[in-house]
Design a protein that fits this description.
cytoplasm; binds phenylalanine; tRNA binding; Phe_tRNA_ligase_alpha1_bac; about 325 residues; ligase; 7-stranded mixed sheet; alpha+beta; phenylalanine-tRNA ligase activity; 12 helices
Length: about 325
């Protein structure tokens, strides 16, 4: 009877524990076989009770083993379906922002701190917004500066070659004062190489108000380069754009200035980072802004070129290949 109580109270978690229990009671040298051996020496009048008790114990032990095995099996099945719910979770892989987005967001941040808003426009443009309004009438030789992708055979519809088209749209829809930057994707029919691609990104800026001068432009560029590169040794080289007069190209001095300047190791010297100038009066007129009342400046830069400088990237094609070994390196950036 004591044994029956013990058998019924028994519980086991593992297959090994159940097997040990089975051997203890039902094995060759187990408790039950011991009782069966004793049976012969039990006095006749007690044989019936003894026999019944031993049989009850045997059944109890067998039933226990069966039921424990069933419980164990059903637990293992559950594990198969749900996994081990107490196990620590797999770490979640966190992605990285694309370097183009990182640099674009930095540029937006820098200009929004001095009152510029962000404007956007269509990537498929018409001739007016991409060229004609910007003082590039049909047959103007400067149109060749930007090899254009046209949409099928319609010469009026094209992929924008710069985001200056957004500035035209913005001037058409808003009255001065205007302070806006236009980030976006642009397209040019150029051979793909380490230095240039047929798709790239620009941020162009526009500032129009009363009495805006070239000094305001230069000061804005000094502020911008100081914020983005941590330095503002720049020079303006006279240049030509149909939509600005005078026009200039902005170079930044990219050299080892201090021993701890970790970003800069190669490609030192003057490097061109953007174009700029005072908005041509013809452009203002095309956008219904009176050039006798207002003046302004504009500038435009390629995001890839700036990201290549900041991150020491030697080949522009890396931005579009989506090689995870490249992209993963930007995990620590915002
Ligand atoms: N739109 C010019 C380009 O695509 C850049 C630029 C913008 C130059 C504004 C001057 C003023 O290269």
């Amino acid at each position: 009877k004591e044994h029956i109580a013990e058998v019924e109270a028994f519980n086991a978690e593992t297959a090994d524990q159940i097997e040990a229990f089975r051997i203890k009671y039902l094995g060759k040298k187990g408790i039950l076989n011991g009782f069966f051996a004793e049976f012969k020496s039990v006095p006749n009048e007690q044989k019936k009770d003894f026999g019944q008790a031993v049989n009850a114990l045997k059944q109890a032990a067998e039933a226990k083993v069966t039921s424990l095995k069933e419980v164990l099996e059903s637990k293992q099945e559950e594990k198969g379906v749900y996994g081990d719910l107490s196990r620590p979770a797999e770490p979640i892989e966190i992605g990285a922002r694309h370097p183009i987005s990182i640099v674009k967001n930095q540029i937006i941040e820098i200009f929004s701190n001095v009152g510029f808003n962000v404007s956007e426009g269509p990537e498929i443009e018409d001739d007016w917004h991409n060229f004609t309004a910007l003082n590039l009438p049909e047959y103007h030789p400067a149109r060749d500066m930007q090899d254009t992708f046209f949409i099928q055979t319609d010469p009026d519809i094209l992929l924008r070659t710069h985001t200056s088209s957004v500035q035209v749209r913005y001037m058409e829809e808003n009255k001065p004062p205007i302070r806006t930057i236009s980030p976006g994707r642009v397209f040019r029919n150029e051979a793909i190489s380490a230095r240039s691609h047929c798709i790239f990104h620009q941020v162009e800026g526009l500032y129009i108000d009363k009495d805006v001068s070239f000094a305001d432009l230069k000061q804005t560029l000094l502020y911008f380069t100081k914020q983005l590169f941590g330095k503002s040794k720049i020079r303006l080289r006279p240049s030509y754009f149909p939509f600005t007069e005078p026009s200039a190209e902005v170079d930044i001095y990219w050299g080892l200035e201090t021993e701890t300047d970790y970003r800069i190791t190669k490609g030192t010297g003057w490097l061109e980072i953007m174009g700029c100038g005072m908005v041509d009066p013809n452009v203002l007129r095309n956008c219904n802004i009176d050039p006798t009342e207002y003046s302004g400046f504009a500038f435009g830069m390629g995001i890839e070129r700036i990201a290549m400088l900041l991150y020491q990237i030697g080949d522009i094609r890396m931005f579009y290949e989506n090689d995870v070994r490249f992209l993963e390196q930007f995990k620590s950036s915002i």
